[in-house]
Amino acid sequence: MSDRFHKRLWRNAVSFSRSQEPHASIHAVEGLRECPTCGLFQHVPRLKPGHLAECLRCGCQLARRRKTSLIGAPAAFCITSAALYATLLISSLMTLNVYGRENTVSLMSGPIELGHQGYGAIGVLVALVTVLMPGVIIALMAAILYGASRPQMPDWTPRLLTWYDRLRGWSMVEVYVLGVLVAYTKLVDLALVILQPGVYLLGGLMLSMAAVDSTFDAERIWRSRDISPTLDDHQGNLLSVAHLDARNGVIPPVKNMLSCHACDLVLAFDHTVPQEQDMGDCPRCGQILRRRKPQSLISATCLLVAGVVFYLPANLLPVMTYTKVGQGAPSTIISGVIELWQAGMVPLSLLVLFASITVPVLKIVALTIMIIGTRFRSRWHLRNLSKLYRLVVIIGRWSMIDVFMISILVAVVHFGFLANVTADPGMVCFALVVILTIFAAELFDPRGMWDAAGLNDAVADPVADSSAEAEFPPASAAISPSSDSNDMEPERA
């Protein structure tokens, strides 16, 4: 069933005027996987527990089999996360004592205080990624595991699995933990700081949610989902879905194939697939099928330019002002790093420097190089740029450390004339830089770099000329044991 209401209306309307019998068969190709980073179609056999498959051209992880049980292990950690999360909502993180006056901060204190100071939008952002989204992620995982444990998987399970994949990166519990650590180091020199049980609950929640991700095997869930015998195309027609096993040596032309961005199912049509056109709904998960992300280059460029515009004021304007006994001065991001260094907290100052200064610059420079390279159809270091793109996607959200730290300080340090911390406009600009570059990285399609260079027109040929073969290996994924598997010898498909 399609997620798009307008398509269902169209299908129901045309059913009155003509038959909706399936026609124009397409094929669901088994044993083939498209690399999400470079777009190369490769053979991926069924993996043994503890093994993973990597793209031979760019090194991207294509698949990984967990050694743990499909439902039991992630369910246990999910229940643990739910218990910790529920307790954390009613617990305090820390208490600050200044000359006998005490203030206590909880998970919601920072967003509320930011709203009181006139920064409601940033308060909503902090509450969204630290309070609401972790609960949503835990609830989605619980529902997914319940649906996957049923003898017949409900239709809502694949949709929830798709949303889990989209929203997981916006749950920033681990980043908030570092924000609490930085705030604590700034407060210990100011007054007496008493850590409350919420800090330990927060650390436990970070570990349990990471354990859920490390034991959850999404591909095995997708494989247990039946493929619908029909597919709704972009015009409301029904197409019959046949099955084709690529391991038998029959591979359709690459220009006729695409893979679902949600469940990785490879589909082959009887004609060339346009790069960005809506090709219907996936017969396994119901998501929109497109060969590439629509308007990827233009969208990423616009968001990146907007991020660059806000980057300079984010570093030049003060992000917060700390006053003690009526005296104080505004503080910028770099001055905060210097203060940590001068206080002897060198590792922490380097962490803040990396997350708040280095990471935004790295994202901006890296995305700029990728966009320019795509526009000029360059083959310059495509493998390294693909690895850099994956790094940018992973580390992008860690720049929120400063925003979280400020939200904690403004919530706990408000003693009027004695001591007070207020947020400043630089924090807003910095938060915008982080969010805009995250969206720019998500909307940019790295496969476009390889498309523009003309390297995705066909399956890589092992008998090609020696120079091309050395740079771009044949289309067969590398299979090797994962880091937690030392008792199996590596093998190649």
UniProtKB/TrEMBL annotation:
Record bears the keyword Membrane: yes
User: Where does the protein end up?
Assistant: Cell inner membrane
Query: Membrane-crossing residues?
Result: 71-99, 119-146, 167-184, 190-212, 297-314, 350-373, 394-419, 425-444
Q: Which InterPro entries match?
A: PqiA-like (IPR007498), PqiA-PqiB_transport (IPR051800)
Q: Which UniProt keywords apply?
A: Cell inner membrane, Cell membrane, Membrane, Transmembrane, Transmembrane helix
Bias type Low complexity, positions: 466-485
Q: Annotated region Disordered: where?
A: 466-493
Tell me where it mainly resides: membrane
Q: Which PANTHER family does the record associate with it?
A: INTERMEMBRANE TRANSPORT PROTEIN PQIA, INTERMEMBRANE TRANSPORT PROTEIN PQIB-RELATED
Q: What is this protein called?
A: Paraquat-inducible membrane protein A
